[in-house]
Amino acid sequence: MAENAEVTQSPSPSNDNSAPADHPSSTTAHAQAAHHHGHEGTFVRPSDLLRPKTTSRPSAPTQPDRPIDRDQRAGLKAIRDFLRIRNCYDVLPLSFRLIELDVGLTVKESLNIMVQCGIVSAPLWDSSTSTYAGLLTVNDYLNVVRYYNLHADKLKDVDKLLLSDLKDVEKFLDVKPPETVSASPEAILFDALRKQLISRARRIPLVSYDSDTQRTMVTSVITQYRILKFIAMNVKETDMLRKSLAMIKLGTYGNIVRCTLDTTVLDVIDEMVMKNISSVPVVTTEGILLNVFEAVDVIEILKTGDYGNLTWTIGRALSARSPNHPGIYCCSLDDGLDTIFETIKRSRVHRLMIVDDNNYLKGVLSLSDILHYLLVEGQEETDQT
Ligand code: ATP
């Protein structure tokens, strides 16, 4: 059983089923009375040709606007309006630390620093040019693992691999270099987030330009969790987002990449790299959720420098986790973003596993799924207001 799992299965407070169920808008024929007076009916009048196309589009479904729909739109609009009047600086706490790593460090040294400081990503600094050199993330370590798996003969030199060599590893593996979206700390949060979501970057480094020294400087890095927590703490209208995940079709449900306790860590890493995902649920053969293996777990496994540990089974890797591991978060298809925001407010959530009452895995809800809905998909909902 998922010992660490905190199950947030609160029933959706608002299953308002009183209104007719959604149905795809039928092909509403745009009925036009045709008046045929003698030979006139055979002519197409210019005004017909010039009529904007939109007038002949099927009209919007005429179902009554339910309170739950109105509230959802109002909640989304409040969040967007809030993000439009805040800049990236606002998301940062009053005091924070920033750990930058020089590209001249070895990958092994960087792993030790990550573990000691309890971080999972860091901006890179190129001291030869005094410039920001991109963001080091756990994906870089996954690439290193794959590289040495293909080149066991080179493993003897693994301790000499520098952070500046990671570009060559990427090139060799033919993987896309990570997205290097950055934003100015003064950028409007809404704009910075849209840019990040479209680029599929998971973090936004805040990079400012110092006109005196003519150099760029990293102020901090904003994570998806930090943004969602900022929204949860400041926008009370998040409690209006009562539509369930099932209703708004939020999350991934088909083709979920999953593993069992007997799958090897190496196989799971391959899946994560190929599918560009950061976690793989661990399930029983019946599909009952037991735990989640996360990309960041790889950092702990690699810190010993023993790449042989990657042949461990997932079961063994999970039992080697620190006892302080925060556990996994679950929700049900009946939960709405209102309850999920409550969880985000209280706890450092990385993602939620969507399960049914018997803990059967139904789907995965990532933080990027939520942000995407708030900023991109939910657009249609707010446009109707
Ligand atoms: P991160 O967790 O690194 O901050 P993220 O929030 O984008 O990034 P990912 O795990 O990378 O989370 O998810 C990317 C997309 O893949 C999301 O749409 C998510 O629903 C989907 N996804 C996540 N895990 C799985 C999985 N195991 N199988 C299938 N799809 C998944």
TrEMBL record:
Residues 10-22 have a biased composition (Low complexity). Keywords: CBS domain, Repeat. Residues 53-62 have a biased composition (Polar residues). One of its GO terms (cellular component) is nucleus. This is CBS domain-containing protein. GO terms for molecular function: AMP binding; protein kinase binding; protein kinase regulator activity. It comes from Capronia coronata CBS 617.96. Residues 247-311, 324-381 form the CBS domain. Residues 1-71 are annotated as: Disordered. Belongs to the 5'-AMP-activated protein kinase gamma subunit family.
